[in-house]
Amino acid sequence: MTDRDYQQFFMVSALKGSATFLETLVPPAEIPEYDHFDRANSRTFVLLRTLIEAQKSAFAMTRWHKFDKSTDLDRPLEELNGGDRLLLESHVDEQSLWQRKLSEALVLLINFSLTNELQFYYHFLLLHDLFRQGSKVREQTRFFGQPSQTAQARLDSIRTEFDAVENETGDISRCWYMDAKGQNRRNASFSRQLEIALASATPLERTALGYTYLKGFGEASGNIHLNFLRSEHARPYACFASGFASCGMLAMCVLDRAHQLSGVSPSGINEHFINGRDSVGRDGTKNAAAEGDFVLVEGPSLGVVEEVRSGPFGYEAYRVRKVEPSADDEIEWDWFTAFDLTPFQDREGLLEGLQQSMAEYAAQGAELDPPPSEVEMEESIQQAMALMWREGLGEYIAKTAKRNTVEPGPKNTG
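RE: above sequence
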């Protein structure tokens, strides 16, 4: 499938998939009953509102798809005029809004898989209502100088119901959506909710969420807010394409989780969409390099991977020792993520090439005696790579390599 085939797949699954499921979950004639929530309808209320957001995202995807088909902006930054660049970024900003909203929706549904009971949905909704009504009370006093007794009475009523439902939940530590300090209650931060969700998310859900707070939700937030330090990308269209894919994967995952929480098995078109989700996306946090491989890291600097470790979410970190550190570089080794290094030469390929050369050398009657061990061959390879880097390879790469992103920061005055 081409990128535009995937775009079509994402649009249809978000729009028709959600609509098909909603007709089963809430028949059109019953939708007015969900203008308000209560204990009995709280789960369906949450799923209904969430799937409507997925449907809305599909209309945004339709606009992006039409834009993509009518333009040819998949070019390096230096080949784009100012108008084209701003046009692309305006679409990326809209994508970022939907990435944030759909990320919140997916994290919510993943975490409700831990508490898929009506009292938790009802408690969750009351918490949001409590916060909303409390804001109204504070707002009038702060900006108009006089309190509202009506608003305060409404707040007290919500609080009474909220406290009663909370007592029924028994263990409030299960309320992943809430921060509780003494008698104070507030919505848990999204970063905390995300960490909880990642622990039980599927590989595709982790990919859709961007793996970490900063790489997913945080980057999207930086795009929709006034951001003076926004990164500049070498190929802006790549951001547009990845933003489209991210929204599409998020919407698909939302649809899948909604089916699971409702207990309604997907059928027909939804079965097709959900079964096709496994062909989309890959895990970008693993298998970037193996021990002994040569990689490029920030600088650019040439390094060799000395160790690979898995973190709490299964993401890999790579301990890289610089083969030829610069004169002013005091850091000889550091840990890098898969996003922060570029594969250069793999260990197995280099060893195989050296062994082949030695075999040809031996065939000419000049066999080494004793033959070098694998450790000695690796040391020789590292010495050779360091020499090549010093003799011009490093300078060549520094001049020709293009960074995917440039992050503005303070000018180095050292």
